[in-house]
Amino acid sequence: GRIYVYRPSSVGAAVRPDVKLNGAVVGEAISHGFFFVDRAPGEYTVTTSTEVDRSLSFTLHAGQTRYVRLGISIGFLVGRVYPDLVESRQGEEEISSLSYTGGR
Description:
four-stranded antiparallel beta sheet
């Protein structure tokens, strides 16, 4: 399957934490950007870390495409980037105007 990770907002643009998938860094949370990774079916956890860790867990099935939108909320010292799973139609629409930022 494929997992798209994207950040449609420019709020807190200077905050660009690493995005981890099951503990391994796969990209950065860059404003107006997206990247994707291809993975085998299984259980996955997307984590971002600024002042605090924010995580999202989900199941990826064979041939499935999942979309993880990164939002931002106000933190004490730094904005907090958090992952949110969205439906495919919404994810496809939202990444259409974003720039590919590549994964790691």
